[in-house]
Amino acid sequence: MKNINIVKVSRKNSISKTFYQKTKIKKFPKGETLIKDWPNSWKKIYTKDYPRLESIQLPKNIPPLNTSISTILLKRKSERIFFRKKVSLSKLSTLLFYSAGIIPGSKTWNVTRRFYPSAGARYPLEVYLSTNNIVGLENGLYHYNIRCHSLDVLLQERHLNKKISELTNQDWVSKSNIIILITSAFQRTQTKYDDRGLRHILLESGHLAQNVYLVGNTLDLKVCAIGGFIDDKINNLIDIDNEEEGIIYVLAVGT
Ligand SMILES: Cc1cc2nc3c(=O)[nH]c(=O)nc-3n(C[C@H](O)[C@H](O)[C@H](O)COP(=O)(O)O)c2cc1C
C-alpha cells in the first residue's frame, strides 16, 4: 500500500500514558466557587483583532437557517471533491456567523456567547481562513473578527490554498474555496484550568468544527475536517507564535 504510514505506538509513549494521565482530575477542591467569587481573569473575555490592518465588513443581514435539525444531521458528511465554483460573500458570512460568531443579545456577564460551548466561557479559539473564488473578496488569508463580524486582511495572495494543501499533504484541499484554520490562544483557558485546559480546547474545536459541517452542508457547501498538517508551518503562515497561540484544527470547505 502506498502513502499509508502505520504509526507504531509503544506502550511507554501511548497518549494515555502521557497526555491523558497528566491531565486527569484526581479530586476537586472543597466547596463551590460561585460566579460572583470568580477572579476577573476567569471572567474577562478576550477576542483577537488587528486594529492596524485593513478590515472588510461581512454582510450583517444573516438569514435564518430554515432547515430542520434532523435534515441537517442526515445531510452531514465529509466531502473531498471540489470544483471551486463561486461562493457568495453572504454565504461565507452566514457560515462564519453560525459556526464561530457571537450570539446577539446576551444580558448576562457573558456578552459574547457563541454557537458552541466553551469550558468556563473562556473562548480560547480564533478562526482564520484562506479563500479562493469568493465573489467580491480577493483570494487571501483573513482573520475572522468575531466582535465586528468582519475579516482582518492578513495577506492577499492567489495561491494560498495550494500552499496550505501542501502543508496538509492532501492535494484535494487546494481545490476548496475556504480553508478554515482554528487556532487556540492557550492562556485564556489555562488561566482557569491549567494543563487540563488543553483537553477543553480540543473538545471545543470539535464543537466549532461540527458547526462548520452542519451550517456548511445546509448551505450546500462541502466540508471535510483535516487533522493532519505541519503545525509550525501553518503557525508561521498566519504569523502566530506557537506558544501563546497555535493551530488546532483545519477544515476545507468548497463547492
Ligand atoms: C479529527 C479528525 C481529523 C480528520 N482528518 C482528516 C484528514 O486529514 N483528511 C481527510 O480526508 N479526512 C479527515 N477527517 C474526516 C474523516 O475521514 C471522516 O469524518 C470519516 O471518514 C467519516 O466520514 P463522514 O464525516 O462523512 O461521516 C477527519 C475527521 C476528524 C474528526
Query: Low-confidence spans: pLDDT under 50, at least 5 residues?
Result: none
What is the CATH class designation?
Answer: Alpha Beta
Strand coverage percent = 15-25%
Attached small molecules: flavin mononucleotide
What is the CATH T-level topology? NADH Oxidase
What is the CA–CA distance across the termini?
30 Å
| Spatial ordering of strands, largest sheet | 1-4-3-2-5-7-6
Q: What percent of residues adopt helix (DSSP H or I)?
A: 25-40%
Label the overall shape: globular
Largest sheet properties: 7 strands, antiparallel
**CATH homologous superfamily annotation:** NADH Oxidase
Please compute the radius of gyration using only Cα atoms.
Answer: 19 Å
Summarize the structure.
This protein is of the alpha+beta class and 255 residues long.
Overview of this protein structure:
By secondary structure, this protein is of the alpha+beta class. The chain has a single domain, classed as NADH Oxidase. It is 29% helix and 18% strand. The chain contains 8 helices and 7 strands, in the order ααβααβββαβααβαβ. The chain has helices at 19-22, 40-43, 69-75, 89-100, 160-168, 186-193, 197-218, 231-237, and strands at residues 55-57, 125-131, 140-145, 150-155, 178-185, 222-226, 245-254. Strands 1-4-3-2-5-7-6 form a 7-stranded antiparallel sheet, sandwiched between helices. Strand 2 and strand 3 form a beta hairpin. Helix 4 (89-100) runs antiparallel to helix 7 and helix 6 packs across helix 7. It is globular and about 55 Å long. Bound molecules: flavin mononucleotide. Flavin mononucleotide is lined by residues 77-78, 80, 170, 224-228.
